[in-house]
Amino acid sequence: MIRLGPSLVPVDAKFPLENFKRITEAATDEDKSRAKKQFVVDVKKHIDAIAAKYILPDEGTYDFALMYIPAENVYYETIIRDEAPAEKSLCHHAMSQRVIPVSPNSFYAYLQAIVLGFKGMKIEDRAKEILQYLGRLQGDFARFRDEFALLGKHVGHAQSSYQNADRRLEQFSQKLLSADTDQQELFDPEAARRD
Question: What kind and span of H or E run contains 152?
Fold first, then answer.
């Protein structure tokens, strides 16, 4: 098992090589063909066993497993040079079981691709969080803008009320001055003699 991110990547490193050796050691084409058929059966059984034993998401694994094929020539003959029709190929069978065949050279590349995928998912999750936060900020800004506009209306009304009150105060002041002048003339004896 390899821990990548929150879960485990199952890796099976056992591989049925007996019939592959028989293919390479076969003296006749018939022996080679029989050994190849048995090898294909062995590998399909191995793929099924990996899927059943190791792909256990409820126990913390991802929903795929890696099947390590221990030599490049075996990987080439098994996966790349498979002459079966596409739907009957070992690669198709492995992928249908969510078992990914890897060779010594491709193993690291697959792990790197998986790691990059997880980094991409983290970036995507973080981007979603940022977008949600921006959405909340946008809502907060809209509420603030509405409150600010309401405050502006109140300030405008207050200013208008102030100006109206100031005019009335000035008018009242003029009336008081006029009344004061009239009253002074009314009670001023000298003003009365002059008249």
Answer: helix 104-187
CA distance 73 to 171: 108
Q: Please give the structure tokens belonging to residue 10.
A: 């199952």
Bridge partners, residue 8, by sequence: 3, 61
Q: Mean pLDDT over residues 122-131, rounded?
A: 79
Amino acid at 6: P
Q: Classify residue 108: in a domain, yes or no.
A: no
> For the segment 27-43, what is each residue's pLDDT rounded down to a tens digit?
888 988 888 889 889 99
- pLDDT above 90 as % of the chain: 16
- Tell me, yes or no, whether 54 and 94 share the same domain: yes
Range of 185's domain?
127-195
Rounded Cα gap, residues 66 and 99, in angstroms: 6
| pLDDT score, position 54 | 92
Q: What is the DSSP letter of 98?
A: T
pLDDT at 51: 94
Strand ranges (DSSP E) for the chain? 2-4, 7-9, 11-12, 65-68, 99-102
Separation between Cα atoms, residue 36 and residue 20, nearest integer Å: 7
Residue 152: other Cβ atoms inside 10 A? 10
pLDDT at 184 over 70: no
